[in-house]
Design goal:
Blueprint lengths: L3 H6 L10 H9 L25 H12 L3 H14 L6 H14 L3 H14 L11 H14 L3 H14 L4 H9 L3
């Protein structure tokens, strides 16, 4: 089942600047790159539902849908500062990352995606978590930065860790499988 947040955007994640042939050759010659942030965090936030804050989160989603990425970043950064342990906080960090990605601010996008991985439990999107999507987006960032072997690593990791997820299917597509 597609991710409802992705459906809300009305588009799939941005295409790559690297051909599938390049990714396939990087896949064949991949090095031993490993990312420790893909290991589950030792002390993740225990997430709770803060009453009345979903409205704030929804304001950020409205900005994402309207492609007002600076506003989305502002709303979601405020949300995560005030409610770092809210059930939607990992999602908010993901959307901060996606918004920075759309603005071509790749370093800031990477920082936001890594916060999803280092602060919150690693669970599938079907349980409301953005772990698979964040790993996938690290792959997309690597593609944008011409780090082909690293992109292959992230794509393969999301396929291995979250098989059948939308992020895994997108990674398989990007790898030309």
């Amino acid at each position: 089942m597609p991710d409802p947040d992705a459906r809300a955007l009305g588009v799939a994640p941005d295409g790559s600047d690297i051909s599938k042939t390049s990714l396939a050759s990087a896949e064949a010659s991949k090095d031993s790159f490993s990312d420790p942030d893909l290991n589950p965090p030792e002390d993740p936030f225990i997430l709770i539902r803060h009453p009345g804050v979903k409205k704030i989160y929804n304001q950020g989603m409205t900005a994402v849908i309207q492609k007002d990425h600076p506003q989305a970043i502002l709303v979601f950064e405020n949300f995560t500062k005030r409610f770092p342990d809210n059930l939607d906080s990992d999602n908010a960090f993901y959307w901060i990352g996606r918004s920075y990605f759309e603005l071509n601010e790749f370093k800031k996008a990477e920082e936001a995606f890594r916060k999803v991985l280092t602060r919150y439990e690693h669970r599938p999107t079907s349980q409301g978590y953005k772990t698979p999507d964040s790993i996938y987006m690290l792959g997309k960032l690597s593609v944008k930065l011409n780090l082909e072997q690293r992109a292959v690593y992230y794509f393969e990791e999301v396929i291995k860790r979250f098989p059948g997820s939308a992020a895994a299917r997108n990674a398989e597509r990007d790898l030309g499988r």
